[in-house]
Design brief:
alpha/beta, Rossmann fold, pyruvate-formate lyase- activating enzyme, seven-stranded mixed sheet, six-stranded parallel sheet, binds cobalamin, binds iron/sulfur cluster
């Protein structure tokens, strides 16, 4: 029997009895918001919902005024907020989902408040700012739910509860505010088997102009390292005991996603986002073997210096790897070791850069200037190291104390971040590419160096003394201008895609396409065999009645508790041992 249930407004907080599971429910309409770039994290949430029969739409702000790289408030009009709100209204959602890394929080809260006022439906906020500062985020009147971890299972559970008219105040990983009470639920179990997740949504991002030439894909989640400026070390703590922190998809599953997207889109480049990518040589070799035959497009990935090995480079070069991103971060070994917890010698960095180039792979290195306690001499060493490496591209970042990171705490302890600065971080002001928000005695030097690093490494020898003079005189504004003008030269690959995305996303907001509800037939992926590792007998078709899915329901909601699933894979290769289910063991190189 098909029972049509009313929308959440009529029964929020009421509970159907257990038989509710058997009801055929109406889809819930979920609206997503993001800004500036495609978010694969949100893409996963979107496809999880559509695979279960719910309807989604996306409002995407081009973010030209402040894209975390440049801040030009006069361009804010180009985001056409009115058009986005109109689209939101015409979609008539039951739920709004906002993705918020720290530096997007200001924009997220502006649109979140507006949507709450205009639509009056519950608003869920997730992403790194929400994970780091859930209490702060929840304290905003317009926020109803905060997602404190990975969202696929938690959001689906919440939406399914809405569809069934059940209360969702106890959904793990979600903090829920209802009738003035905040229900702070524990973080739920992580999905250990990434292959069971539906491939992230692409079409809505494409329509919004968020990608064109570059097809992005995650091959794994988590990172074995512990850089003090990154969220990874506290994420490892919050997910402790909740499953495998380091997870890898199977090669077949990644290739299948790429193939599926290549049937629809026509990218010229593949971008693999995974900090874990180069840590598992056997996985990479298997991937490269299949990739070169079945995909073949040039691609880009991340590599932690100690994990860059000859065998790996050989396999990657043969599979058309076109660029490798490697964090140099600081040119001073003590700063790297003591302040950044990236213990490696200068020689190791030079050797790895050489190795990359010897295999015909282009390099993209990144630097951070202005961390607490850093001296001018140490900052100059960073520029010199990067110059010596002769990378294809280099980026310069101004240190930003991301909330809950070790380097944030160090900044406070050392007096570099006062209460006003902490409030700026909570509000997400500035970014890695803008002004230093520390009370750093050498902040102008850091800002000028950050702007000039990409230009300096590409400059002819005769121009370098001039650029050094510019840094000496802390000509930050001129450096900023030069940085912008030189983008086509300094970031030729990314720059081209950035221009295409800018034009495409502007076109999308200006032509004002109407909302087209996306609803996919349940079980679509299963039907075409795209989940090679999904256990037999399981299905995405009826999530509630499905036993296998119940196992994936976060702890606390299960009727029977399943033992946490752990599948450690240990691989030894060339002295690097990587254990995928546990914190990484230190290597000789570390
Ligand atoms: C890959 C990556 C990128 C890729 C993004 C690829 C893409 N298209 O999605 C690129 C290189 C483009 C990128 C850019 C930036 N990144 Co980045 N990036 C990462 C990285 C390495 C991995 C992220 C990851 O594993 N995601 C896996 C997916 C599945 O997780 P997710 O995106 O977090 O989403 C899940 C949950 O957070 C949650 N969730 C997220 N949003 C929402 C919303 C709702 C409603 C719900 C319910 C749940 C939810 O559910 C999602 C699915 O499980 C992390 C570091 C790390 N290892 O974590 C940094 C990281 C996320 N990046 C960071 C930063 C600072 C940036 C930049 C600002 C850098 C810069 N200088 O410009 C830009 C931001 C651009 C932007 N507008 O988003 C910071 C964010 C810190 C913070 N507190 O905000 C991180 C944590 C690194 C760090 N330094 O600590 N990044
Ligand atoms: S290697 Fe990258 S993702 Fe891993 S801890 Fe360091 S900065 Fe974070």
């Amino acid at each position: 029997m098909l029972v049509r249930l009313p929308r959440w407004r009529l029964f929020l907080g009421s509970t159907l009895d257990g038989e509710g599971d058997l009801l055929e429910t109406e889809p819930v309409r979920v609206l997503f918001w993001y800004r500036g770039i495609e978010s694969l994290g949100l893409g996963y949430l979107m496809s999880m919902l559509t695979e279960h029969g719910h309807e989604i739409d996306l409002i995407f702000e081009p973010g030209l005024d402040d894209n975390t790289v440049m801040n030009i408030p006069a361009l804010a009009r180009l985001n056409r907020p009115e058009a986005l709100v109109e689209r939101a209204k015409s979609f008539n959602p039951d739920l709004v989902c906002i993705g918020a890394p720290t530096n997007l929080w200001q924009h997220a809260s502006r649109i979140g408040e507006r949507l709450k006022n205009e639509l009056g439906v519950p608003v869920v906020v997730g992403g790194h700012h929400a994970q780091a500062l859930p209490e702060y985020v929840m304290n905003h009147w317009w926020v109803d739910v905060v997602c404190i971890g990975e969202g696929e299972l938690a959001l689906l559970e919440l939406v399914e509860r809405m569809a069934r008219g059940q209360s969702y105040t106890d959904v793990p990983t979600m903090w829920v505010k209802q009738d003035g009470v905040i229900h702070r639920n524990e973080i739920g179990m992580l999905e250990n088997d990434l292959d069971v997740l539906p491939f992230p949504e692409k079409q809505l991002w494409w329509e919004a102009g968020a990608f064109r030439d570059v097809l992005e894909v995650f091959t794994g989640r988590g990172c074995p390292f512990k850089c003090t400026f990154c969220n990874i070390h506290y994420q490892r703590e919050i997910f402790d005991g909740k499953g495998d922190f380091l997870r890898k998809r199977t090669v077949g599953n990644v290739i299948e996603e790429l193939k599926q997207n290549l049937r629809t889109y026509d990218p010229s480049f593949v971008s693999l986002h995974d900090d874990n990518f180069t840590t598992n040589v056997l996985w990479v070799e298997e991937f490269c073997e299949v990739y070169k035959d079945e995909i073949g497009l040039p691609w880009y990935c991340f590599g932690y210096p100690t994990t860059i090995k000859p065998r790996l480079m050989k396999a990657m070069a043969a599979a058309n790897c076109s660029m490798l991103f490697m964090g140099v971060d600081s040119g001073d070994p003590e700063v790297r070791k003591q302040l950044m917890e990236r213990p490696m010698t200068d020689d190791l960095i030079y050797e790895k850069a050489k190795l990359i180039h010897e295999h015909g792979i282009r390099s993209f290195v990144s630097t951070i200037y202005g961390i607490p306690g850093e001296t001018p001499k140490e900052m100059w060493k960073t520029l010199d190291m990067v110059d010596h490496i002769k990378p294809t591209q280099a980026s310069g970042n101004v240190f930003y104390p991301l909330p809950k990171t070790k380097l944030y705490d160090i900044s406070v302890e050392m007096g570099y971040l006062d209460e006003a600065g902490e409030e700026k971080v909570r509000r997400g002001e500035s970014s890695f590419h803008q002004h230093s928000i520390l009370n750093h005695p050498h902040k102008e030097l850091a800002e000028t160096l950050a702007k000039l690093t990409p230009v300096y490494v590409k400059a002819p020898t005769w121009a370098k003394p001039l650029l050094r003079k510019m840094v000496d005189r802390k000509m930050t504004r001129t450096a900023q201008l030069l940085y912008i003008v030189m983008i086509p030269v300094t970031f030729s690959t990314i720059g081209k895609e950035a221009v295409r995305i800018t034009l495409a996303s502007l076109k999308a907001v200006f032509t004002g396409k109407s909302a087209i509800p996306r609803r996919r037939r349940r079980g679509r992926q299963a039907a075409v065999g795209q989940m090679p590792r999904r256990p037999e007998g399981t299905t995405w078709q009826r999530p509630v009645a499905d036993d296998a899915r119940k196992e994936r329901i976060p702890e606390g909601l299960r009727t029977t508790q399943a033992a946490p699933h752990a599948h450690p894979h240990a691989h030894e290769d060339e002295g690097v041992e990587v254990v995928l289910a546990a914190p990484r063991r230190r290597t000789a190189e570390d």
